[in-house]
Amino acid sequence: MPVPAHHRLVQPPPIDCPPYGRDLFAGQVVLVTGGGTGMGFAMARAFAQGGATVAVVGRSLDKAEPAAARLAAEHGVETLGLSCDVRHADQVTDAFDAVEQRFGPVSLLANNAGANFPIVAEAISANAWYAVTRIAIDGTFLCSTEFARRRIARGEGGAIINNSAQYIWTGFPGDAHSAAAKTAQATMTKAMARDWAPHGIRVNAVAAGFFPHPTTTSGDSPEAIAPLQNMIPAGRTGSIHEFGWLSAMLCSSIFDGITGQIILQDGGESLRRSLMMPDYVPPRERANGPWGWQ
């Protein structure tokens, strides 16, 4: 049913009004994987709004370079677009080297690179499984350990933020590949936080709920968003700029005391279970695909 008109919807500030000053990340260099579009770009923009120097990393320069140029033009910060497949250790090393040669040491890392698509588990081929899991698991591991080794060698701390998902605790229909990968990423977050705490390196993750944007499977049209808004207690889906802000702030001095945490940002969607709920329809029997939409 539609959200009743008398329900109060709490909206985030406009995209050009971040909840911190323009110098929050002054002097910091952040590397953002998968930063050319969607939620990765929201992360990169949030760091840029706080004055960070931003390296936008993607598998293709076709997205990374325009995104970097846009951030530089809109926020007046130094940026660099890089091509890197995070599944390959040598490319990760080369990307860090390139950023350091241009701007100096990377002090912040945002692991966003990922892939996903709706498919029931028995239909997932080995290649499809690896396409999703290796980016999120191997990519997060390779980028994080490369970052940590360099920070430890310099005797300096730093911060890592990982883009996880709200379904790491429950799974999600038609999403066995991503659910497994994001859950591994979350436990990796906690393990790395323990390993690197003595070196002043903090590691956290945001378990993101529904943040529609043009590059998601369902898109961000009003028709696609409406059914999602109706099932979320907050009465709305998330705006990717508020995801970006939370991700960036968790890497800032504001939250220096937080590490090893998985912060759930889902508008209360995980609280939705009740005695009276719609009938369960198995994923393969849903008219619009395993996720309920295509």
UniProtKB/TrEMBL annotation:
<dbReference type="Pfam" id="PF13561">
    <property type="entry name" value="adh_short_C2"/>
</dbReference>
<keyword id="KW-0560">Oxidoreductase</keyword>
<comment type="similarity">
    <text>Belongs to the short-chain dehydrogenases/reductases (SDR) family.</text>
</comment>
<dbReference type="GO" id="GO:0016491">
    <property type="term" value="F:oxidoreductase activity"/>
</dbReference>
<dbReference type="InterPro" id="IPR002347">
    <property type="entry name" value="SDR_fam"/>
</dbReference>
<dbReference type="InterPro" id="IPR036291">
    <property type="entry name" value="NAD(P)-bd_dom_sf"/>
</dbReference>
<protein>
    <submittedName>
        <fullName>SDR family oxidoreductase</fullName>
    </submittedName>
</protein>
